[in-house]
Structure formats: C-alpha cells, structure tokens
Amino acid sequence: MKKLLLSAAVLAMSTSFAFADTVRMGTEGAYPPYNFINDAGEVDGFERELGDELCKRAELTCEWVTNEWDSIIPNLVSGNYDTIIAGMSVTDERDEVIDFTQDYIPPSPSAIAALSDGINLGSAVIAAQTGTIQAAYIAESGATLVEFATPDETIAAVKNGEADAVLADKDFLAPIVAESNGELVFTGPDVSIGGGVGMGLRESDGELRAKFNTAISSMKADGTLNTMLKKWFGDEIATYE
Amino acid sequence: MFSFCAEPKTLEGVTWLACYLTTGKHIAFYGSFITVMVLIAITAPVALLFGFGGATAARSTIAPLRWFGKGYTAIVRGIPDIAFFLFFVIALDQAFEFLRHKVLCPEWTDPIRQGNDFVVCSAAKLPLSSSPQWVHETYGFFLAVLTFAIVFGAFAANVLYGGMRAVPRGQLETAEAYGMSRRQTFWRILVPQMWVYALPGLSNLWMILIKATPLLFLLGVEDIVYWARELGGSKTQVFSYPHGDWRLYYFLGLLVFYLALTKVSEVALAKLMARLTKGQATMGGEAQRKAVAS
C-alpha cells in the first residue's frame, strides 16, 4: 500500500510538469574521449559538446542519461531515452533494429594494443567490449575473443595478462597508449572496420532524425564539427571536407 | 569542494587526495551507499509481506488461491534473477505505459508496437520525458524495489510455508479443542509460533538481498559496485584526476562495508532469535527455560 501511495505521488509529481519537447540523450559514459563521466559526476567528452551544440541548433531541450552499453539499444527502442550518442558505428545489423543519422565522426580505424610488439595475432587472446564491431571482427577472424562489459576492463585485462591484446577504436586507445609510459604499444597494422559514427534513433522517430541530420549538416558546413573533432581527438583525426 | 581544488593537476600529496575524494563523482559514490541501504530497508519488509501472502495463499483451502500461491513460488524461484531483472522490469514498465496510453490518449490511432519500437503518446510516458532526471531515477528505484520484492517474496513464501508447517500439530489441535475457529487458530497460534522456525531461512534471504544490489544497475540505478568500478578504472589526462587502475582499493572498501553490514546483521538476528525462542516448544526455548530455572 505504501508503495502504491509512493508511486502515485511520483506519478502526480511527474504529471505536473509541462509537456516541453525534451529529448533524452542516451550515452554510455565510459568511453573517453567520446563520452565519459567527469570528476564532477556529469557526462562530458566530445559527444557531450557535440550533442549540446546539435540540440541548440535544432532548438531542442536535451537531457543526458547514461546506460550500460550492453542494453543501450533495447532501452532505446522501449522508449527510456530518445537517442543513442555513444560512439556507435553505423553497421547493417544495428541498422535493422534502429535508425542512424548521418555520421558525425568519419570512418576511423581500429587498432590493436598489447604489452609488446610482435605478438602472433592468429593465436592470441584478444579482448574487446561486448556487442561492438571489434568483438564481431575478432570472432570472425579466428583469434580467441574475450569480451568485457566496459572499455576500461578490456585495457585492464591486457595489463594484468588476462588477454594478450585489445582491439578497440584507435581514438579511444591512443591517449591510453600514449600515457602508459611504454607499458602498452600499438602492434600490427590498423584495422578498418565499420562505417562512421552516427546517432541512433528509433525507426519510428523520423522527424527527430531529420532535425539532427540538418543540425549535423550545418555543423559540417561551417567547420565547427572539424574544430570539435580536432579538439577532442587531436590533429590526426580524419575530418570532413 | 575546497577552494584550493581549483587546479587539480598542480596538487600533490594530501591536498590532492582531499580534493580527489570530494569530487562530485565521489559524492555520488557516497550517496549510493545510502541508496543501497534505503533499498534494502524498503525491500525487506515488502518482500516479507509478499512472502506472507504467498505462503498463506499456498496453504489456503480455496483451490485457485492455493494454485496461485504455489505457482508464484515455483515460477519466480525457478527464473534466474538476471533474466527476471532484464525481462520483467521492461515488461512491467511497458505495461504501465500501455495502461496510461489507453486512458490518456484514446484518440491515438498509430499502433503501439512498430517493428521493434514501443511507442506510446508522450503524455503516457512514465515518467514523462520532460520530467527531471531525479524523477526518472526515483521511478527506476521503485521499479527495483518492486522487482526485488517479487523475487525475494517468492523465496520468503517458501521459507514461511515451511515455518508454518513446522509448528507442532499438537499446538493447533489444542487450539481447535478450545473451540477456536480456523482464523483464530491461524492468527493466534500458528503465526506467533512460526517465526522461530522461519528465521534461519529468512536471515539467509536477508544476507543474499544485501549482496544482490549490483543487479540494480541493470535498472539504471547506480549502486555502490557501479561507482566503485567507474571510479577505480584507470583515468587518462582527459580527467581532472588521472590515475591508474585503482579498482582494487575501491573494492577493498566495499569488502569492508559488506563485512560490517553482515556483522551488524548477525548480531541483530541473534538477538531477534533469542527473543522469538522465548517460551517456544523448541530445543532453544527449552534451553532458555532451564537456564532461568537453575
């Protein structure tokens, strides 16, 4: 009964707010510099800055929500938030379930980081995050795949010897390798998988998708997107013409 | 928090640590301890209530009620917690939204299921997408309480059912001989005596409930284990306080917390057991009587 009363109270409170056009932006919050929770406890990173700018241009009120990577698509389609902006590469499998905007990060390579150069990738144990294009790539390549729920755990697995190497977006690995004081090195050639990174939306949300597409186009046109990419990923990042 | 924390990367030693431990993220971490305690404090009595209802239904003389009671314990106990949390909660949330949709938006003609999408009108959203984040979090919290209560209620129902059956038959026969009705026998004789038999099982459930809170993150409620993992993970220069992999220290902190909670629970449960044993027709009750007599 108490619970009934409480949920009724929550209901009553929530209905008293005006119906503003709030768009809930879903992200992972564990993938620096794409998106992460900063020390103040807020969502920060390239996608935070980009998302806020897109919302401003599309004249939308946006609110940030974090969700575990594993269940990020199911929670979008069941309506817990309205967009996924979490460094998600556009792939055919994902496109069957949700829709994507045009890409806001051009196709960029993945890379393999390990404790030493020259490991045999054919027989190595390679770590990747569950449900990523990198995990699918390793599974197909024949190497042994170990999956982890968060990107950080894939790095920790290599450092403590649980895995021989980690395959992830190069832009995610680059600062980690650079700051590891030589503990981690890139090995082998870069791997090109996946298209660019786009925002994910429900297939029934065509109107919102069009708004974000327009906003992304305008940011590409006036060069602000390129500036933002360079700010967060460094000068070597591929940019838009 | 402190005025000297403005430039974290210039700090060293104790001041660095003082600033580090008082970041907004750490405050959220400390707050999550309260979230977990509140969750346990609300869930335990609600689950007990569900359990009592389930056990009473399971021994009812009315067949459909009995089937319901037995079905509830059998089905819920048989489903893995993680499946229950992933499937049931989303289904429950959608059921609430579906009902609100039917009531609030009768003029809506589009289908609610569009391919993979679950689409209800914006007035039927629960909570509304325009409501602030804390409303969403509170809603998620109470969904969590409800789900935990249903899961643990099923286990508690089985324990209480066993407890009810363990009360000596002679006690109930005596009550009937005194002319008590079924209802009177149940409330005056059976219920007061069953707890002592049920308590060992219930205390197990309590201990498991304390440790089950990481399942909260599946519902979007950020609990202590989520924050420990998030804070302990290695941090690059993008963060104000970069550091290596410190998960070990954070998890050691959690270990201390859980052990302390377990110890407090054990002491409290031992006291409760001693009180419930008083005057009971059990070996423990007999021992207490002898101790007083000698």
UniProtKB/TrEMBL annotation, chain A:
Residues 1-20 form the signal peptide. The keyword Protein transport does not apply. Residues 22-236 form the Solute-binding protein family 3/N-terminal domain. It comes from Maritalea porphyrae. SUPFAM superfamilies: Periplasmic binding protein-like II (SSF53850). InterPro entries: Iontro_rcpt_C, Solute-binding_3/MltF_N. Keywords: Signal. Transmembrane segments: none annotated. This is Amino acid ABC transporter. Residues 22-235 form the Ionotropic glutamate receptor C-terminal domain. The keyword NAD does not apply.
From TrEMBL, chain B:
The chain crosses the membrane at residues 27-53, 74-92, 139-161, 189-209, 248-269. Keywords: Membrane, Transmembrane, Transmembrane helix, Transport. The keyword Membrane applies. Residues 33-260 form the ABC transmembrane type-1 domain. Gene3D superfamilies: MetI-like. It is a multi-pass membrane protein. It is found in: Cell membrane. InterPro entries: ABC_transp_permease_HisMQ, MetI-like, MetI-like_sf. Its main location: membrane. The keyword Ribonucleoprotein does not apply. CDD domains: TM_PBP2. Belongs to the binding-protein-dependent transport system permease family. This is ABC transporter permease. It comes from Maritalea porphyrae.
